[in-house]
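task queued by scheduler; priority normal; single chain, no ligands, no partner chains; default sampling; output format set to structure tokens
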Amino acid sequence: MRKLRAWTIRLLATLHIGHTRAEIDSELSEHITMHTEDNLRAGLTAEEARRQALIQLGGEEQARQAYRDRATLPILEGILQDVRFALRQMRKSPGFTLTAVLTLALGIGANAVIYILVDSILLRPLPYADQDRLMRVTGNTFGVLPKGFIRALGEESHAFSSIAGFGDNTESNITGADIPERVFGATITVNALDTLGIHPALGQFFSKDDEVLGQDNDVILSYGYWQRRFASAPSALGRTLRIDGVSRRIIGILPAGVRFPYADTDFLIPVSYKRSDVYDPWNSFALHILGRLAPGVVPGQAQAELRRLRGIVVLQFPWQMPDAWVSDMTVVPLLESETGDMRPRLLLLFGSVGLILLIACANVANMMLARATSREREIAVRGALGASSRRLIQQFLSESVVLGLAAGIIGLAAAFFSLHLFVHLLPAGTPRIETISLRLSDIFFTLGASILAGLLFGIIPSIRMASLNLLESLRLGSRGLMGKGSRFSASMILVIAQIALSVMVVTAAGLILHSLYKLSEVDPGFRTERIVSAEVSVDSNACKAPHAPPQWSGRLCSSFFTALTAHMRGIPGVEKAALTDALPLNGSTSNYAFDAENHPRNAQANAQLGTSRNVTPEYFDVLDLKLVRGRLLSTQDLSGTTRAAVINEHMAESLWPNENPIGKHLLNLMDETLPAVWYPERAVEIVGVVRNTRDGSLGEEYSNQIYLPITPERTPPVMFALMRGQATPSEAAAGLRRAVDGIDSLVPVTRVRTLNEVVASSVAAPRALAVLLLGFGALALVIGAVGVYSLISYIVSWRVREIGLRLALGAQRWQIVVAVVRQSLLLAGIGCAAGIIATIALSRVLRSFLFEVGVFDPVTLFIVPALMLIVALAAAWIPARRAAAVDPMVALRAD
């Protein structure tokens, strides 16, 4: 405590150094006077008495310095002196200061905004207790699992203290207000929220009673939906919401900031079980799995246990499951699983802006080297007065750090105001996008990066200036125009490094951009022009009910959509219309596990997989899907008696490469609750083959696709209307709204988009990456061009006398221009070569982001160096013209 107090006193004395100096001078004067008086009384003369007094103190200045060292913190005092001197130097050179600060601010600002994204999405902790112990269980051989399997794993596992499940995010109708509301919700096991380690903001969470079918009509609301719907009123507890036709009692509110299991989930309902039904826990594959590790258990141990338990739990199925099913269960941290594909994209962007900051640092380092020329006399005087190299380096680094901090503050402000723009550029499905915001840790990172940048761009000029030999410097009078002397070697290396780093960023941007172009040129396999889509949503529980509720007047989902199909044909401006349960390239197709005729499968092997789409017969005509063989679906198939299906070419060729697929049969195993054996009466018959279409995304390979007619037993509650014709999206939507109102006014019509917009959204992620990298590439080009311009201008200004002499001896002005430009192009050429080699060396980083474009893409590898050479030529042109315009007489007289 005593030492802390002493340090505090010294710190305050350092911060108030003026007052401290006055006190020290006063005290020192008193000591000198006292010793002088003692010497006078000893009989010495006045002059000798004062001299002896100073000798006793060890010298006036030495004593003053010793007092100051004891009363203050000398290191901090020196830093403060250096900072004040740096600020004076910045005021003396406003042009240099402004250019350096803005150049650095561009690099630091870009780093700040990308770091905010990285911090918010990848680093920021989840709002759960002990999040490091929360895990997701994933695998390639399964997407979702039955609730019975998850419950059995939880009962058997010792590596996990708790295992829970949650379903997909689905939209539901919430009625009771004037306008039906479409809200996202999810099903969760009753222990899921306890597994996360959270507590309700209000009310309670699910209990074991909610697991029983018939007692499961409770609902938990998100904090945001509670605020929007009920204005944060505590009285919301106990009230009922009618969700998809079922009245559910509100029992709890999630805490603020918790968005589970998805960002836009507004309500949660429990997973329930049918009592005495042995098939119920196993026949619905609808849940994802998460768990909390037991204390002291690492993910590898938990993964090994799950794979061992899989062989035990799978025996509880009422039928035999394939040996390979869920055999690859993998345990990954929950945070890592949520970030998905954003992690490599954000890290690529972060690496790019890091290179831009290095380019900016090299640029400012070059500017400081050039500025050192005007300070040689000052540096020599300081050295003559006793300043050591270490002290000079400290002084110059202090100037660099002050510049860096000034640039960091401006860059941070720019990042804060541009953050909204960057968030807007991100694709809509970006994980944790709602959490993106500037936090204190981001400010500390930016200021730390600013200090580091200041040290980085200041170290070379500082060492160079501290080791200057004034006599040798004055002898520098005639170097070649190419700048072969050592004076420019460091500057040239820095410019070459700038160009190389710029080439790396621009090449990466070019490859991604070329990849995006290739992706946009992919034929989706269907027509997209003049097609409008809209979502029509019926209460899902109304579709499942054996008897329709009163407000439906006896109409179930099938009759509703049959009537809607007829009404859609009469919408003005709509030439053709169809219904489908999933839009192409929308990422919402259904898995279709099947057995195929003439392809016997061992019961222990996994079934073959494809994607299915339920459609009306007009679907093929609306999208202009070409028939390859057989026939398309017809209105007769809508009854379900024909059990017809249409497949794509890829499926036909992979299953029956040398046979006619028409008349072959497929058995949908997703609908079966019995052992996988062949049931001809349940199989669908292939009646046609259509051309291949892209399904999940434009970049994916073709997959097995099955088109099924929308039969009464296969009518989902949510359908997408497709309307082709001359009607605008607003006109088509208005006509569809009238058609739906004519059947049931409580059914909402949402998500009105053109099919072109749907296709464009499927490439939103690579497009956002390309746009951001393109912007950073342009920024790198600008900073690199400034670097080339600064160096060539500096060389020209230093060689004015020599240029004048050459002109006086008969050199042509165009020769001067060519010499200056040649030097610029030489630097650019070396930098381009180094940048291309570095980019190729990092090819593994880029390869995963490219589509039908290699790292050795000749188009990009030709355009980027050519662009850089053009930029270098443009940057050198003004200094070259200035060099050619030198008046020989004026230049020679100046010397």
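post-processing summary
- Residues 389-425 form the longest helix (37 residues).
- The chain is about 50% helix and 15% strand.
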